[in-house]
């Protein structure tokens, strides 16, 4: 059930963006400067990974043409159809009922929503000014109601993004009002531990309320962890976890391509050996090399590859992309 953690990403994003632009040191920033910063933060890596997935489709086309080998779908069909290219380049794949939000690099569906939420955030700051907190609270609550009643006024993923992003913005303002309170290490540790338990429970839940309860749990989690007063906050300040946070966007954007290549390799081995290694169950393909020990080893290897590749993409794409603003 961990896909619901994307809601946490939206909450944290709203929290950080409001701190950075609406109430931080850069309150007088203009729209052009703001959008340039956000564009070069997200788009270079998105564009690079889009090209990677297009290249993978050409690889599938080569295998299909010469060996008649099909990797799940025929090349340039369904989620990788040519008609999905322009929506991905414009980052609108999650906003319409005519496009596939999971097309090409599937994780980018949330980046599609995130990018245009930046514009909405800027507009609310400029238009509503001192009433912005009321605006953000209303927008978040109404979007949450639409999710609960399964409204079709907007795409479901868009409603998820709006409710959590602007809820995260309100969470920052609440934190700002309460930031002068100091929690003891013991109290902070107990609260942080309780919030982590709540997160685990709501993520693993199969109840109908899950999609509306999760954002509320994430709001509270971000709020209490912002005080950095307990043992779990101290653990999160360890260098390896700080580094993982720094490259987390790269991890998110590159992992699907790596998993696709691992799965494809298992399918090729399955065809070559006749041993089932990549079984399709309903719409999901599962990799199983026949041994728990080998499977766990493969997981560790894949995680290592993802982190290594992400460190490279962070250094050579993300950082260089952000530096383009200066030129």
Notes on the protein architecture:
Strands 1-2 form a two-stranded antiparallel ribbon. Helix 6 (156-178) packs parallel to helix 8. By secondary structure, it is an all-alpha fold. The model has no long low-confidence stretch (mean pLDDT 91). The chain has helices at residues 5-22, 31-67, 85-90, 108-128, 132-148, 156-178, 185-204, 210-225, 231-236, 239-246, 248-273, 292-323, and strands spanning 278-281, 284-287. The protein is globular, with a radius of gyration of 21 Å. Strand 1 and strand 2 (284-287) form a beta hairpin. The protein starts with a helix and ends with a helix.
Main sheet characteristics: 2 strands, antiparallel
Please give the order of strands in the largest beta sheet: 1-2
Oligomer: single chain
What is the count of DSSP helices, taking H or I runs of 4+ residues? Answer: 12
Mean pLDDT: 91
Helix % is: over 70%
Short description:
Strand 1 (278-281) and strand 2 (284-287) form a beta hairpin.
Which tags fit this structure?
globular, two-stranded antiparallel ribbon, mainly alpha, 70% helix, 327 residues
What is the fold's blueprint, element by element?
Elements: H1 5-22, H2 31-67, H3 85-90, H4 108-128, H5 132-148, H6 156-178, H7 185-204, H8 210-225, H9 231-236, H10 239-246, H11 248-273, E1 278-281, E2 284-287, H12 292-323
Antiparallel strand pairs: 1-2
Helix pairs in contact: 1-4, 1-6, 1-8, 2-4, 2-11, 2-12, 4-6, 5-6, 6-8, 7-8, 11-12
